[in-house]
């Protein structure tokens, strides 16, 4: 007896999936290209975190390519509207795409930790905890991939369901995979949220203007959005149990897997885009980057604070540049390579004060305008 048909034969989630996948992945690609341009061309200091993001983007592009090919043959439609061979091919491509989808949202977390270690320079135990946390998350995701491809013996029974009906293959209960996938998604959401909150606990202790602290916290805390996307994705995992309508029941899961990975990548890139944003907003000229951007941004985030002294009709403007690499412990404000190249002893603080004194008439003292700085 045939299973009851679900929905209308005209139902098709394919166009929606393609619109979201390529729209968001296209934006992600632009952001990553901008990041690599800044790190490679303007700063000339490409790090491990940058290559991890590029690798994650490649995994996401492969995921989109496989999904696109899958939709072309009918994925996103109800299974009863497709012939058995098409359903088999669609199930195979969907299973294969999950390999790249999981990697695309697991790897960026490692890149975020590498970036936080470079910018904030936490203590040894903090670094150890951050790498342990994200490394554990990556291992959990790896186990999920292994479980997916070992659910059936032989593995091809995942998409060739006729082998099970013929007694030529055996499979474990699909809810074992679903429950573990929910655990994987929950751990991924927790890690994203932790990596979003952690920088704020450090930055809010710094002695700088509240506006700059809030801006930095917002830039480094966008991973909280990825945490929310991971939670939404977990609600779609039950579609894996819909074997009678697999091509339609798992469509939303495919969509949210891509959304989560793209949001993680974009959030990890936002803090590195300050030079491009300044160029777009006209705060800096391009020629100034050729001379100073490598010193301003290389390996650290440079902050500017301003102090004023007004006395008897004179104006004194002092500008202090502080290079932020060791935030919490304050053990090493300058990077070792920079200190060595400039002939400075290690583990010291270099402070440069540029003072301009202007004498003006008491009767006609123009209002003092605060110079503009950037975080």
From TrEMBL:
Listed Pfam families: Fung_rhodopsin
Q: Which domain of life is it from?
A: Eukaryota
User: Per the record, which residues fall in region Disordered?
Assistant: 292-320, 336-375
Keywords tagged on the record: Membrane, Transmembrane, Transmembrane helix
**Bilayer disposition of the protein:** Multi-pass membrane protein
**Family per similarity comment:** Belongs to the SAT4 family.
Taxonomic source organism: Aspergillus lucknowensis
Q: What is the official name of this protein in its record? A: Rhodopsin domain-containing protein
**TM spans, by residue?**
20-38, 50-75, 95-116, 128-149, 174-194, 214-232
Q: Which residues form the Rhodopsin domain?
A: 34-279
Q: Where in the cell is it found?
A: Membrane
Give the matching InterPro entries. Rhodopsin_dom_fungi, SAT4-like
């Amino acid at each position: 007896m045939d299973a009851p048909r679900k929905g209308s034969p005209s139902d098709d989630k394919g166009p929606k999936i393609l619109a979201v996948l390529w729209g968001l992945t296209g934006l992600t690609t632009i952001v990553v290209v901008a990041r690599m341009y800044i790190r490679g061309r303007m700063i000339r200091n490409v790090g491990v975190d940058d290559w991890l993001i590029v690798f994650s983007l490649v995994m996401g592009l492969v995921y989109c390519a496989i999904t696109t090919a899958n939709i072309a043959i009918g994925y996103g439609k109800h299974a009863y509207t497709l012939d058995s061979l098409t359903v088999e091919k669609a199930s195979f491509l969907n299973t294969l795409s999950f390999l790249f989808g999981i990697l695309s949202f697991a790897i960026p977390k490692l890149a975020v930790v590498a970036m936080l270690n470079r910018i904030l320079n936490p203590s040894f135990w903090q670094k150890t905890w951050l790498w342990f946390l994200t490394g554990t998350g990556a291992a959990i995701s790896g186990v999920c991939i292994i479980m997916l491809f070992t659910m059936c013996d032989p593995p091809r029974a995942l998409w060739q369901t006729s082998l099970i009906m013929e007694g030529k293959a055996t499979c474990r209960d699909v809810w074992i995979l679903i429950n573990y996938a929910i655990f994987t998604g929950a751990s991924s959401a927790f890690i994203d949220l932790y990596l979003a909150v952690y920088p704020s606990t450090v930055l809010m202790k710094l002695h700088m203007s509240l506006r700059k602290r809030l801006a930095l916290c917002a830039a480094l805390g966008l991973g909280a959005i990825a945490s929310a996307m991971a939670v939404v994705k977990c609600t779609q995992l039950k579609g894996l149990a819909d074997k009678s309508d697999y091509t339609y029941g798992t469509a939303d899961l495919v969509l949210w897997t891509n959304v989560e990975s793209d949001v993680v990548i974009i959030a990890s890139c936002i803090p590195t885009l300050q030079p491009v944003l300044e160029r777009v907003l006209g705060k800096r000229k391009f020629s100034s980057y050729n001379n100073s951007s490598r010193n301003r941004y290389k390996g650290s985030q440079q902050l500017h604070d301003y102090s004023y002294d007004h006395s008897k009709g004179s104006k004194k403007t002092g500008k202090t540049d502080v290079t932020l690499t060791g935030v919490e412990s304050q053990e090493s404000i300058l990077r070792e390579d920079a200190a060595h190249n400039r002939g400075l002893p290690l583990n010291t603080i270099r402070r440069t004060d540029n003072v301009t004194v202007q004498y003006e008439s008491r009767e006609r003292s123009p209002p003092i305008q605060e110079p503009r700085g950037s975080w």
